[in-house]
Write a structure and sequence with these properties.
The chain contains six helices and 57 strands. It is mainly β.
Length: about 900
Amino acid sequence: MRYSSRTFISLLMIAGLLSGVVLVAPPAAAALSVTWTSTVDFDGGTKSDSGNRYFAANVVGDTPWNGATYPVAVYWSGSTYVVWQGDGDYKIYAARYVHGTQTWSTAVVVAVNPLAGDGHGSPAIIADQLGYLHVFCCAHIGGAAGNLLYRRSVSPGDITVWDVMSNIDTEVTYPEVAMMANGTLYLVYGFHPIPERTWAYRFSTDGGTTWYPVAGRNEFLKFNGTTGYSSLVERYGDRLYFAFNRVNPGNSERYDVYVGYLNMTTQHVWCLPTFDAGLKLYIEQAQANCRVHNSGAWTVYGVVPHLDSSGNPYLIYQVGSSQTIRYFNFTRWTGSVWTDPVQITTTDYTNNNDMDFIVYSSTDIEAFLIANGKPGQGGDVQRWTWDGATWFQQETLLFDVGGRGNPTDPGRTYVLPMVPLNAQSDLKVLVPERGWLGLNSDAWGRIFAWGESGFVLDNRYTSGVYDIETSTDDALVASGTVEFASGKGDTFSYADANGDTWRWIAFNRTDGATSLAKRCNSIEILSGIATANTTATFVECGWSSNFRVAGDFDVRLKATLDYKAPGNTQRAICLYDQPTECSNTAGVLPVSTDGIFYRVLETASSNFAAFNVSAGTVTQVGTTTTVATVTPLWVRLTRATNTFTFFRSSDGSAWTQDEQFIRGDAPSAFFVSFVELFSGTGPSQVSFDNYQLVAGSLTGIETYKRSGSWTSPPIAADWDEAVTSITLQHSNLTADTPIDKVEILRDFQVIETYDTNLTSGSETTLSFNAAGGGYMQVRVTLAGNGSASPTLESVQMTIGARDVTSELVELLLWLFLWIATVVLAFASQPIFGIISGIFGSFTAYDVFTLTGNLPLSLGVLMIALPLMAFSFGEFYKKMTQSEESGTGG
């Protein structure tokens, strides 16, 4: 009786399941096409923002690292690891960049630096053969401040947890670390009980647990009563090369350039080509045998050596007759002699105006230099290349914004470019900002990374500009299209809270002994750039562009006076040949500044004045025009060959010409800057909006963004519906500016990708048969070369019936196997019921994921789970009966 009941139940379940299969394949749905082709349509989707060009924003006001500590970054197993000094107390931070996913990690604190306020304790990092990371830091000269701290990662490639290791040595500074082919770590550093510095090393053969010599150190370079600076140790075979200069005790200046190497097999010090100094090289021996360049009365800073694949050293060093007149010299060892120095370019300061470079071969070198910028420390970041005979400037990666060119107001400037050890092509160099002086958040700078595809972006920081834009974001983008963000225009529609964006660099200055220092990026920017000053003193707040305009141009900007308390308020726009503050005040601009300036001064009325700026000298053009207060105010600056004209308007359409002048020696390209200046009892506020480059060209690095995507709004689809085709209307496609990829998303996850570049034509239709059901979207990704953009004009997504034959076959196979297991379960042993229950649970999940048919999947699950429970019950009863009868095990 019980068996026949089982048979009946089994047949009933089989019949129910077979009849339920019809639920899988209802009649096919009619096709649905959705087209996005207007500005409103594209604004309704999602415009990407792949992130900003910096990955750290807490660099100390001093420097994150110094040129005598190496390396500050290392590549190992798909990631680049970077260390620096951050915050106002100089804590040691580390971050990881994963090349495969193009993502930066959150920065972590590696060590608390006891040298707060002293940038000489900057860190060095290396990865050993197993991937453990080793960081050395936080020492400068004597006493407790000279304790060289050591941290080792707990796990390979992991920056989140660090072991506190024993201090390496005391009375030391400037750690430089290298790893030999056998995995031995060598740590080189300056050991200097006052008044001299001796360069020494220790080594570890067990991954940093034990350092030799166990007591003391191996001293290999001695200056005899004076000191010197060693730079960037680099390994070739069993040799460890180093370069250095010497300090004259009479004037504490640095002179001459030397190169030597340590033979780590014999521990002897050598000068090229054949001088063996034994275990220690003295400065007198170095003078006779290791000197590469006799600088005479000129001083030497920032000596950087690197090796080619044959172990020949190459040098770039900074030499000059004064603090401000400096030259970058290049020389190399041919295998038998040092070549005569070749001058690359100039710079204008000693400390931190350094360089780094990559040697690909004797005829292919890439160098990153801090060249002339604003007067004083820091400058522009220039990229140069060597072809075996000549150095060529390829581009300026970052322009020095600076302040007013004096030590008390440096503004932002760039210093100390560093190439990671084992650098990869997509991350070749790291460049820090020196930032503002002081030990508070207003003093902190940032660190930028650059590679062959441009700046290495960090999506943890918004760029203040979408990657791709419509006319909502840039009025010069054609209506109903999408293209890359560029320097053509900006309506400031993207909410940004700190004043710095992909297009604009915020700067400020304050005048007067009682003035309140104020950064522009403390200002909240919601719709339009607004500056709000609430002090009773003179305050300037403004922005300069990251791009330049060239040719015959027509630049326009809207500047609205929102409100003004008693006092004077200026609204101004400038076109200068360098990214500097928008000012017409003599002595404020660097003496090299060239360009034009247009200002409206608000008192009881609007007073318009135009200025020509040549070599930092400001000259008014024509006379001041006084009219009733104009707000909103549109200003317009044009160039036709050598003629410059100034216009104003209240609506941006009808223009009144103000002044005009001719200047034959004007620069060819200009940065755009704009500013509010206020002096009064506060508050005052000016909003800038609708910047436009109506005519003219863009020049410089990355005037257009290089990549970006647009994702459609989600469209609901039934389980038997899927995206069957995507049709794109487009223009301006080339091999350098293609549509890079088209993706189909279901429930916000990518399920199908077409990744062959579209490089030509005006219309493309792609066929898809993605899994159906849920919310369907299309994402279109554009790519570019930084100087132009493809244009996306419309996107049509067609949702229709999909081919589910293969899925039905797979589903029926699953059901057949499960039904067979059910029959076995009731005809044989309970264990098969347990198996069939588990099998049925997977079947139910498969029904749902393949078809989206919730009723059927729930039906399968409702049968499978009770079946498994019933089988467990049967199994329990059998075991109980066995135990009662005495046959249990």
